[in-house]
Design brief:
- The protein is α/β, with parallel strands linked by helices and 410 residues long.
- It has helices at residues 2-45, 66-78, 111-119, 160-172, 181-190, 211-225, 253-264, 300-306, 318-321, 335-340, 359-367, 371-384, 393-406, and strands at residues 51-58, 83-88, 103-107, 120-125, 142-145, 175-177, 196-198, 231-236, 267-272, 291-293, 309-312, 328-331, 355-356.
- The strands form two sheets. The protein has a seven-stranded parallel sheet with strand order 3-2-1-4-5-6-7, sandwiched between helices. A six-stranded parallel sheet has the order 10-9-8-11-12-13, sandwiched between helices.
- The longest helix is centred in the N-terminal third of the chain and has 44 residues, at 2-45.
- The protein is globular and about 65 Å long.
- The chain starts with a helix and ends with a helix.
C-alpha cells in the first residue's frame, strides 16, 4: 500500500511539473508568435498612404454602440463622402445588422482590418482597441478616444497586458473626450497623463438633452417590446463581476414591480439587461409579460431614455442616467466584497442613489423615496464632480474631426 501511495504521489507531482512546463513552453511560443506577428505588422503597415477622408472605428463591445456610434451618426449627416470603417468580430453576422448605410464593416484582427486602420486618417475608439494589435500609428494619423464611462465609481482595472496597452494608448492618443473634472482626474492618474482632453461631454449622453430624441427612443423601445403607451419601465442592469460571481440576480422582480406600482402608480414592466459578458446567465431569470429580457436591445442609451426608474449596482450607466434626473436605486448585496476587491473612486454613500443590500431593504427604499430630496442630491453630485455635459458632444466631436480632415487643426 505504501509503494502504491508513493507511486501515486510521485505520479501526481510529475504530472503537475510536466503540465507547468508545457504551459510555460506554450506561453513562450505564443509570445514568440505574437512578437513575430507584431514585427511583420510594423514592417508592412508603418508605410503607405493615408486616405484623408477615411475614419476607422473600434469599440470594446464590437458593435455599433456607445460614444463612437453617436459621433459617426453626426459625421454621416455632415459629410456623406467620408469613408467610415467599423471593426467587428470575425464571421459574426449578428453584429452587422444595425449598421447604417455609409458605414462599412471589416473583420477584427484580420489583414483587411490592418489595411483599413493603417490607411485611415482618423481612429475613433472607446477603450484600448486601436492599440491592441500593435499596429503602428503613422505621422498624420489622429487617434481620438471617447472611453465608455461617465463619472463612474468603479476603479479601472486590468492585468499586466491591459496596463501595457494602456501605456501605449497614452503615447499614441491625440485627444481624449471627457465630460467632467472628475473624469479628467481619473484619466490623468490611471493611464493618460499626457493626452490632450477635449471637454465636450459624451456623445452618447446628448440624447438626454433632446426631448424629440427621447420621444423617438421611447417609441423604438415600446415597439420592440410591444408595450402600451401608458406603460412605465423599470430597468435593472447590473455590472459585470471580474471574478464571474453571479449572486446579484436574486431580486424578486415581480415583488419589486408591485412595490413600484404601489409607490408611483400606473402600469409597470421590468426590463432586465445583463452585462454583455453575462448574457448567458439570463436563463436564471423567469421572464414573462411583466418581466422582459433587455439583453438583445442594441442601444443602452435608448433604453435609458425610455426608462422611468433605474436599478443597478456599480455600473457606470448610473452616471449617464443621472443626467435625466429620474430615480435610480442601487442594489448591492455584495458591497463589502466588491469594495474590498476592485474598489471605488469615491464612497458609494456620497452618490444620490438609495442603496440596499437585500430585497426588503430595496422595497423600503422605494417606498420611502423622496423625489425632492433626490433632485437636490443629484444637483450637488453633478456640481461636485465638475460635470460639463450640455448635449452638444456629438456635434463638437464631429467639428473636431472634420476640421482635422480639412487641415484646420492637427
Amino acid at each position: 500500500m505504501g509503494k502504491i501511495k508513493r507511486f501515486l504521489i510521485q505520479g501526481t507531482f510529475f504530472f503537475h511539473i510536466n503540465n507547468r512546463i508545457t504551459k510555460t513552453f506554450k506561453g513562450i511560443r505564443k509570445g514568440i508568435d505574437n512578437g513575430i506577428a507584431l514585427a511583420i505588422r510594423k514592417a508592412i503597415y508603418s508605410k503607405g498612404e493615408i486616405q484623408n477622408n477615411k475614419v476607422f472605428v473600434m469599440t470594446f463591445e464590437n458593435s455599433y454602440t456607445c460614444n463612437p456610434k453617436y459621433i459617426v451618426e453626426e459625421l454621416l449627416k455632415r459629410d456623406p463622402t467620408l469613408d467610415i470603417v467599423w471593426a467587428i468580430p470575425v464571421n459574426k453576422a449578428k453584429f452587422k445588422y444595425n449598421f447604417p448605410r455609409g458605414v462599412r464593416t471589416v473583420d477584427r484582427g484580420t489583414m483587411e482590418m490592418f489595411e483599413e486602420q493603417s490607411s485611415a486618417k482618423i481612429w475613433i475608439d472607446n477603450a484600448l482597441n486601436c492599440v491592441w494589435f500593435g499596429l503602428p500609428k503613422k505621422q498624420g494619423q489622429v487617434y481620438i478616444n471617447t472611453w465608455h464611462g461617465s463619472m463612474g465609481i468603479k476603479r479601472l482595472s486590468g492585468n499586466y497586458m491591459w496596463r501595457k496597452r494602456a501605456a501605449k494608448c497614452n503615447k499614441l492618443t491625440d485627444y481624449c473626450i471627457t465630460n467632467s473634472k472628475f473624469e479628467e482626474d481619473v484619466f490623468r492618474t490611471e493611464f493618460w497623463p499626457d493626452v490632450k482632453f477635449v471637454k465636450y461631454g459624451h456623445a452618447r449622453n446628448d440624447i438626454f438633452f433632446d426631448e424629440e430624441r427621447i420621444r423617438q427612443a421611447k417609441q423604438a423601445v415600446y415597439q420592440t417590446y410591444g408595450l402600451e403607451e401608458d406603460t412605465h419601465i423599470l430597468l435593472y442592469a447590473p455590472t459585470f463581476r471580474d471574478d464571474g460571481r453571479d449572486g446579484f440576480f436574486n431580486l424578486d422582480f415581480e415583488e419589486i414591480r408591485q412595490c413600484v406600482e404601489d409607490k408611483f402608480g400606473g402600469n409597470w414592466v421590468v426590463i432586465v439587461r445583463l452585462h454583455f459578458k453575462d448574457r448567458i446567465k439570463a436563463g436564471q431569470i423567469r421572464f414573462g409579460d411583466k418581466i422582459r429580457n433587455g439583453g438583445g436591445y442594441p442601444d443602452m442609451q435608448e433604453l435609458m431614455a425610455a426608462t422611468d426608474i433605474g436599478i443597478t449596482d456599480y455600473s457606470s450607466w448610473a452616471y449617464d442616467y443621472i443626467l435625466t434626473k429620474r430615480p435610480m436605486f442601487l442594489y448591492c448585496p455584495d458591497l463589502s466584497y466588491y469594495e474590498g476587491g476592485r474598489g471605488f473612486y469615491y464612497p458609494i454613500e456620497t452618490t444620490p442613489f438609495p442603496i440596499s443590500k437585500d430585497q426588503d431593504e430595496m422595497m423600503k427604499q422605494i417606498t420611502e423615496f423622496d423625489n425632492e430630496q433626490y433632485l437636490v442630491k443629484v444637483d450637488e453630485f453633478l456640481k461636485d464632480k465638475g460635470c460639463y455635459e450640455e448635449g452638444t458632444a456629438a456635434k463638437r466631436s464631429a467639428d473636431l474631426i472634420l476640421n482635422i480632415i480639412k487641415g484646420d487643426s492637427k
